[in-house]
Write a structure and sequence with these properties.
Blueprint: E1 2-4, H1 10-20, E2 23-27, E3 31-35, H2 38-47, E4 53-62, H3 66-74, E5 87-95, H4 102-121, E6 126-127, E7 134-141, E8 144-150, H5 172-181, E9 189-192, H6 199-208, H7 230-241, E10 251-255, H8 258-270, E11 277-281, E12 295-299, H9 311-325, E13 329-335, E14 350-356, E15 359-368
The structure holds S-adenosylmethionine.
Length: 378
């Protein structure tokens, strides 16, 4: 199978897969390949935090022109996966001189599939772009064509706990990936001081308690497949839930906007995580560390691309608050505003390149020491 992910998360996704028991795990660009049986396919979809989608390849062949594409697609026995009363859709990624339009590849492949049914039965399955019974993925790389079934459906960042919002929420997979990259393991107190709709808090709590990332998700694509095995799915879910662990510290969220606080509380409740997380309305810049021991902080502050803020002042206040009010803290944040980083006035001990959507960003770490107003400061 192929698990797709975001730039920069390939190694942690590979590690997640190994921890779950995947075989022959290999990393690629924004993807990791692995082997596993049907139960493992269910497990990977339910448990992985940094996968966007899991594809199950069913056929590979060489393509030289539209005829060989049509023949290749027709060589698959589609009655194994579809019937006349089922619907499907085809997603394509094309990176080849032979075809320059992915839409054209999708159209040709659709013809090959419906012609197979027409010849057999005189009828054909229909396309449904929004709620198909089967999502087919065609990937053409030069002359290699790989046909897969999309086992997940909607991207796996749709965890099922977040309701609609007007706050700019961070992608759940990006949030979970940053937490895993930063080494968050639930062994101290946690703070997201600008929590918005609470995504980072929810992902942090699920990592701390080893709760499967997609336990609240409403649907996976494989539930509509001919070989759907509800008992196996329940068994896999139960065995994952047996591995949850206790959490002995606190997870706190602040936001200065009352609407964000209300939204975050809603989402955390939806995720059944309210027993682990406290959220209150605060301006981070007027707060002080509440924790005795080490504090772990991870957040995504505004980048200034649409918010009306004085960026220089805002990022300087982040640095000043770290220095003056948060001793003994590992503070991480992501920003796509590389200029603004200069104003923090502290030297980051780590800088990791990531993307937030299309925006190139940096995940930065600041280590603030106990009792030192100097430390690693610039
Ligand atoms: C980019 S959003 C965070 C989104 C969040 N990670 C999510 O997934 O929804 C930035 C948040 O910082 C909050 N904020 C801005 N300045 C703040 C401050 N001084 N103290 C606390 N929160 C602040 C904003 O209200 C906004 O909700």
């Amino acid at each position: 199978m192929i698990a797709k992910t975001l730039f920069g998360f390939e190694e942690i996704l590979a590690q997640e897969l190994r921890n779950l028991g995947a075989q022959k795990v290999e990393t690629g660009v924004r993807m990791v390949s692995f082997y596993g049986d049907k139960g493992f396919m269910y497990k990977a979809n339910i448990a992985l935090r940094t996968a966007l989608k899991i594809l199950k390849p069913i056929k590979e062949f060489r393509v030289f022109n539209e005829q060989s594409l049509y023949k290749g697609i027709q060589s698959i026995d589609w009655t194994d996966f579809l019937s006349n009363n089922k619907t499907f859709v085809i997603d394509t990624t094309v990176n080849s001189d032979i075809f320059n339009h992915s839409q054209f590849v999708a159209l040709k492949a659709k013809d090959a599939i419906v012609d197979q049914f027409r010849e057999l039965t005189g009828q054909r399955p229909n396309i449904d772009k929004d709620f198909p019974d089967l999502r087919i993925n065609i990937h053409i790389q030069k002359e290699n064509c790989s046909v897969s079934l999309d086992t997940s459906g909607n991207s796996l960042h749709h965890r099922g706990y977040r309701t609609a919002t007007n706050i700019a929420p961070i992608n759940e997979v990006l949030a979970a990936g940053m937490l895993l990259l930063s080494g968050w393991d639930g062994q101290c107190d946690f703070l997201d001081p600008m929590c918005g709709s609470g995504t980072i808090l929810a992902e942090a709590a699920m990592i701390a308690c080893n709760i499967p990332a997609n336990i609240n998700r409403k649907e996976f694509a494989f539930e509509k497949w001919n070989d759907w095995d509800n008992d196996l799915f329940d068994k896999v879910t139960d065995s994952l839930l047996k591995k949850t662990r206790d959490f002995h510290y606190t997870i706190t969220g602040y936001d200065k906007a009352p609407s964000a606080v209300a939204k975050a509380k809603d989402n955390i409740k939806n995720a059944n995580l309210d027993e682990y997380i406290n959220i209150s309305q605060e301006n981070f810049f007027t707060t002080k560390k509440q924790t005795e021991g080490k504090l772990f902080m991870l957040f995504n502050p505004p980048y200034g691309e649409r918010l009306d803020i004085d960026l220089e002042r805002f990022y300087r206040e982040i640095g000043d608050t770290f220095k003056q009010n948060y001793p003994n803290t590992d503070a991480w944040f992501i920003t796509a505003n590389l200029e603004a980083l200069k104003f923090v006035g502290l030297r980051p001990s780590r800088k990791i390149k990531l993307f937030n959507g299309k925006l190139e960003a940096r995940l930065v770490k600041y280590e603030i020491y106990e009792g030192s107003k100097k430390g690693k400061y610039m």
